[in-house]
Structure formats: structure tokens, C-alpha cells
Amino acid sequence: MKELLIVGLGGFFGSIARYAVQLASANFLNSSTFWATMVVNLLGCLLIGILAGGMLKLSNNQHLLLITGLCGGFTTFSTFAFDGLKLLKTGLYGQFAIYFLVSTIGGLILCAAGLMISSR
């Protein structure tokens, strides 16, 4: 139960940070939200790389708070990129290809399916 609260707390702050960065990006770029989402995704990738890169020695609770919670609430794209990088670094190229293709193409297909289901 303690771990769930730690993740939830990190997710709370990550979600707020995402919204704040999206607002600032949309105002700065003066354009549609997909550019703001791109900024969030790229910043999230940088953040998870810094946190998981070994510069900081994170305890399990700090990992749950910062990587699972904060980064997860900020953007799950960072986790997608980090997991893909781990597969590449360990030489699991076939698994990376499946992970990448199924996640991206499957995600687009399922998003379209959800839109079709909800518009009926």
C-alpha cells in the first residue's frame, strides 16, 4: 500500500508538470497541442535518462516516486523510450523491433478503433 501511495504522489506531480509544460509550450510555440506533446515527450525522455542513468543512486522508494510516478505521470513515452533503449543496449534487436512496431502501429490502430467505437 505504501508503494502505491509513493507512485501516486509522483504521478500527481508529474501530471501537473505535464500540464504546465504543455501550456507553456503551446503559448511559446503558438501552435496546436501536438507540438506541446512532443516537447513533453522529449523532456520526459531526458528526465528519465538522467534519473536512471546512475548519476543518482536511487532507493526503491525514490525509484517508485521519481521514475515510475513522476516520469509516468509526466509522460509514458519516456518509459517507452527507456525500455526500448534497454532492449537495444542488451542486443535484443528482434524484441526491440517487435516492441517498437507493435507499440507504435498497434497504438495507432487501437486509438482509431477506440474513436470508431465511441462515435457509434
What would you note in describing this structure?
The protein has 120 residues and is mainly alpha-helical. It has a domain at 2-75. The protein is built from five helices and no strands. The protein is globular, with a radius of gyration of 16 Å. It starts with a helix and ends with a helix. The model has no long low-confidence stretch (mean pLDDT 90).
Provide mean pLDDT, rounded.
90
Q: What percent strand?
A: under 5%
What is the terminal separation in angstroms?
Answer: 39 Å
Radius of gyration: 16 Å
Order of helices and strands: HHHHH
Shape: globular
**Oligomer kind:** single chain
Q: Helical percent range?
A: over 70%
Largest sheet: number of strands, sense, barrel closure? none
The helix tally amounts to 5
By helix and strand content, what is the structural category? mainly alpha
Give a summary of the structure in a few sentences.
With 120 residues, this protein is an all-alpha fold. The chain has 5 helices and no strands. The chain has a domain at 2-75.
Question: Features of this protein?
Answer:
single chain, 120 residues, mainly alpha, 5 helices, 85% helix, 0% strand, globular
